[in-house]
Amino acid sequence: MSTNRTLSDRARDLHHRAFVVDTHADSIMAVLAGERRLTERSDQGHVDFPRLSEGGVSLQVLACYIEEEYKPERALPQALRMIDAIYREVEASQGKAAIAFTAADAEQAAAEGRRAVMISLEGGEPIGTDLAIVRTLHRLGVRLIGLTWNQRNAIADGAGEVRTRGGLTTFGVELIKEMNRLGLVVDVSHLSEPGFWDVLEVSTQPIMATHSNARALCDHPRNLTDEQIRALAKNGGVMGMNFFSGFLDVDKSKATLERVLDHVDHIVQLVGPAHVGIGADFDGIGSTPEGLEDVTRLPYLTQGLLDRGYRDEDIMAILGGNHMRVLRRVIGS
After folding, report:
1. In which domain, by residue range, is 280 found?
2. In whole angstroms, how large is the CA radius of gyration of the chain?
3. ω into 72 cis (within 30 of 0)
4. Which of 36, 69, 216, 315 is the most buried (most CB within 10 A)?
5. Residue 186: which residues within 8 A CB-CB, separation 6 or more?
6. Is residue 167 a contact partner of residue 195, using CB atoms and an 8 Å limit?
7. What is the rounded CA–CA span in Å between residue 291 and residue 300?
């Protein structure tokens, strides 16, 4: 099927009535690098506040990814710089964006016509082995934490450490308990598979895989197996579809909007429509699927779901309702 879809009035209306959530974008890295501002519409990268509005996004999670050159000693200062940059971009938006500390904050911002922004930490290196730091990051507005990137840290082994078959450390177990207590979402994207299972044993709250796809369709350690997807669903969690070509198909040339829909279909057939959402990984990926080149193209995902026969209520859940259910449960309304 061609990706050259026509956007119908029905899809456009449904998309803009939905509360659309994307649980992962790395856009703040471009801001820190001085390449662009989120307040200004750009033809570079994938996300900025004007394009979020055009794409109908209600809540964008901005990730603080700590590059390897800062790990481990300089990880915390770099995380603080990124958090500061997010606040400065929101303040400079002149009311067009707002930091969301709760699900209700995000809903209020959307009701006022603003883009809600939530902060996540991608990789736990800034925390080190000190729970006081995670409490402080929570006070600063961080609401989701990806425990690892691909490497091992003091919390767990990452997806790139599969040879070790290692999961959570003793400190990692204590961190999960503290995150549950504080109201921080545990993000298992980038975590090793043993770590995934350890998290489910420890966490009393639903989890997210904010930007991971189905391994059955693309055999990559960053994607979840069917067994993991079933376990995540049993936990009440949600996984956000990653738009990186290499996580959609082993042949990147086949990465299209249709392939994203194939991953959605696979997960829905496994566990129903209540456990899948969007986690595009925009501005953190080197290639995007044909038909989803930046955030303004998200209405075409809605069109694709309609074309594949999804009910309106299920589409609205996939676009953001599922993620909002977990955010209300974990961080509070």
Report:
1. 18-330
2. 18
3. yes
4. 315
5. 145, 147, 176, 179, 180, 199, 203, 205, 207, 208
6. yes
7. 8
Q: From 189, 192, 215, select the one nearest 281 (Cα to Cα).
A: 189
The beta strand positions in 97-241, using DSSP E, are: 97-99, 115-122, 142-146, 185-187, 208-209, 238-241
Distance of CA 172 to the CA centre of its chain: 21
Q: How far is CA 247 from the centre of its chain?
A: 14
- 10 assigned to some structural domain: no
Using DSSP, state whether 200 is helix, strand or coil: helix
- Tens of pLDDT, residues 6-44: 999 999 999 999 999 999 999 999 999 999 999 999 999
The CATH code of the domain that includes 31 is 3.20.20.140
d(CA 125, CA 172): 12
How does pLDDT run across 253-311, given as a tens digit for each residue?
999 999 999 999 999 999 999 999 999 999 999 999 999 999 999 999 999 999 999 99
- Does any domain span residue 3? no
According to DSSP, the residues that pair with 60 across neighbouring strands are 22, 117
Contacts of 238 (CB under 8 A, 6+ apart): 206, 208, 209, 232, 274, 275, 276, 277, 322, 323, 325, 326
Cα 212 from Cα 16, distance rounded (Å): 25
User: Does any domain span residue 9?
Assistant: no
> What's the pLDDT score for residue 5?
77
Number of domains in the chain: 1
- Tokens describing residue 293: 């080149």
Tokens matching residue 256: 């299209």
pLDDT digits (tens, 9 = 90+) for 109-142: 999 999 999 999 999 999 999 999 999 999 999 9
- Nearest-CA neighbor of 58 among 121, 10, 105? 105
